Amino acid sequence: MTDSARLVAGDRAPSFCLPNQYSSQVCLESLSGKVSIVYFYPKDMTPGCTLEATDLNEMGDRLRDLNIGLVGISPDSVESHLNFAERFHLGFDLLSDPTKAVMSAWGAYGEKMNYGRKVVGVIRSTFILNPDLTIAHALYAVKATGHATRILRLCEAMAPSR
Known about the structure:
Elements: E1 17-19, E2 25-27, E3 36-40, H1 47-58, H2 60-65, E4 69-74, H3 78-88, E5 93-96, H4 101-105, E6 109-114, E7 117-122, E8 125-129, E9 135-139, H5 147-158
């Protein structure tokens, strides 16, 4: 993957409509009008992905207070997402992108380093969107530990004062 495939602040977020864990279609446009978080992760039930999802979930009340949207996207099936969401009581949509087309459009799928080797796969990435669905922050190859706190700080700085 080259840097030219990556999104940067100011880019328009690539559109999508994907099924969530309940098989309902969720489209990017549903996030319009508020600051939103779209994060991409490799696989349900794995240690890093579980840590990231549960940390974000713990911030759910604060995100809702700030009217911040949140969706996670991985190549896992709808059924896998439902099991993951139920097991960890996740209060946000997990979207299924088995073809990895949406991930590729966002620069969240491609060549990456894994334990010192180049591999092709999901690049753990998080995007914070402005209410007009442009990218405010594009964070690639993030580490799961402590990431949710960083995201919350960035979102709080963007949220309108109440």
